[in-house]
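call fold(seq) -> C-alpha cells
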Amino acid sequence: MRRKFILANSILFICSVWFITLLFFGIWSTYPRTPRQEHGVCKLPVATYIAPPYWNQTHMDLLPKLSDIYLPPASKRRFLFRKMGKIPHSNLSRSIFGPFLDQLDWNKTKQLLSTFTSLMFEHGLGNRFFLTGTSLVGSIRHHDLIPWETEIQVFVDVSNQEFVRDLLERLDSCCRFKRGFYVDHLYTNEFGIVDHKEHEEVEPSVHSATHLFRIEIGYYAHGYYMVSRMTTKREETRTWPVEIVFPLYLRPFGSLWLPTPRDAWTYLWMDGYDVSRCLPGTYWLELLSVDSLSSIPCILLKDTYAFVVLPNATSKNVYTERVMHVTSERLVMETRFRSPQVLQEICVAAL
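ret:
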C-alpha cells in the first residue's frame, strides 16, 4: 500500500513538473527572439568595418545582416503632431520622452535616409559623411534612431558641399531640399498619415518648421590635425583631433550600416553629449525653443525603450592610445516584472 502511495505521488510530481515546463516554454515562445549570430562573425577583421567610399555589396555581405535581426517596432505616438505646440509648458515633462513617429512615419524617415545614403555611396562619398549628434547617440544607445527623436543628423565634408547639394536638388520626385548656410535640410514630400487629414489647417509657411521627416546636413572641414564643424555661431564651434574621427567605421542604424567617427564616445563627449543620459528630442529643444529642459538618466526609461548595454568605462581621454577591436553589443529591454530580454546582439568595431 505504501509503495502504491509513493508511486502515485511520484507520478503526480513528474506530471506537475512536465506541465510547468510546458507552460514556461509556451510563454517564452511568445517573446520575440533574436537569431543568434555565428560565433565566427565576431572574428571578422576590424578593417571590415571601415567605411568604404563606394558601396561594395560583397564587402557589406560580410557584416551581420541587420534586416534579419529582430528590431522592436516603433511605438505609436500618443497625440496629434499639429497639437504639440499647444501643450502647456507644465505638461511637457510627460511628453518630451514620448514617441513622435508611428510605424508609417518611421518607415518614411528611414526611406529618406536610405535615399541619401545610396546617393553618397554611389558617388564615392561613403567615407565623406557620418552620423553625428543625436543620431550618433541613437546608434550607440539603440542601434537606431532615438525613439523620441524627429530628425536624422549627419555631417558631410565641406569640400564636397556644392557637389552634394547639386545631387540632392535633383531628387525632386521623392524629396525636397532646402539650402542653408552651413546647415541644409532634406525633407520627404509627404506629411505623416495622422497629420495628413489636418493638412489644410497647417499654413504653408510653417511646413518646413513642423515637418516630421527630415535629415539635417551639417558640414565639417578636414584639416591635417583637426576636424572642425562649419558654423557661423561661436557657441557651436567644435574641433576634434583627426584620430578621433578618422577613419570612419560602420555602425548599425536600424537596418543600415552607416559611417560613424572612429571613437564615437569621445567624439560625443567633446561635443557635449553624455551617452548615459537622455536628452529631450530636437523638437522640444529647437522648434519650441524650450531650453530649460534638462537631461535625465537613461536608466529611468529602461522599462519603456530598449537600450544598448554600455561598456563599464567609456572613453573621455583623447590622448589614450587604444586599439580598435571587434566586440559584441547587446540591445536589451528591461521591465519591472521579468528578467532583461536581449532583443539583438551585434558585433561592431570599437575602442
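The first strand starts at residue 129 and ends at 131.
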